[in-house]
Amino acid sequence: MQQQQYPIGTPGKPWGEPEKKEWLQKQRIQRSYNDDVVTHIERFKARFDVREYGQLDYADKHYPLYVVLSPEWDDEKPTVLVTGGVHGYETSGVHGALKFIDEQMQAYQDVFNFIVTPCISPWGYETINRWNPDAVDPNRSFYQSSPAKESGCVLRLIDDLGVDLLAHIDLHETTDTDNSEFRPAKAARDGEVNTNWNIPDGFYLVTNSENKQLEFQQAVLAEVAKVTHIAPADEDNRLIGTDIDIPGVISYPTHDLGLCIGLSQAMYATTTEVYPDSENATPEQCIDAQVAAVVGALNYLR
């Protein structure tokens, strides 16, 4: 299914600065990072170690970036990283990370150290966007000299903490707007032809093709299945155009692609994908599925 021409740019020609500026001018603030996210994080200060790990300044907007850490760090314990809001428009990833901190994190602190970044891309959260204002995808930018400030701040955070990660759970969504907006926009930006994929109806996981840890992935899916349905493969036995490894799991070379779960050498890593546009799932179920994914991972590791 080929998408109609995107309204910005010339077919076959990558965007220059004028096209990126035109795209940016069309973006609008639609919700509040401060009201929806920061106010929750402020309340965590009574129970956890909350730190500002960076700042983003875009036009007249200032965004402080926050990480929530275990209050009593123990170098003898393994460390788990949970990331949300790499793509700011993926709502349940942000609110799933916040709900995990609020309701589950303390229960596992006797076993693990935690690093949780609930909303890596606050401008994307506010404008309901996949990219940052520079038309850069943070989830393709987790490498040294990153072109995305959002990704660079996280990389510096992990480097400054100086810890080896046992596991990394990155909370995402796949939405209908991936086909209606974000993939067509990417093709236009890059001067390529866009061909849409089937959007999976349900939850699935993306792992590292070079270290799949499929037993771990299955443990995550088993916990999520208690909350919402797992996405079936399409008629070609694929999810988002990629062959499945096992039901509910696909894999990519995460380091090569600059994906968030490729930012470290964590033995166990997974990217969650919730489908909030499903007729069979509510927004609250999507948030709960994100929490369940982290819990499933922790139970397996424990």
UniProtKB/TrEMBL annotation:
Classification via PROSITE patterns: PEPTIDASE_M14
Cross-referenced InterPro entries: Peptidase_M14
SUPFAM superfamilies cross-referenced by the UniProt entry: Zn-dependent exopeptidases
Source organism, top-level taxon: Bacteria
Protein's GO biological process: proteolysis
Residue span(s) of domain Peptidase M14: 29-302
Gene Ontology molecular function, alphabetical: metallocarboxypeptidase activity; zinc ion binding
Similarity section: Belongs to the peptidase M14 family.
Name used for this protein in its record: Peptidase
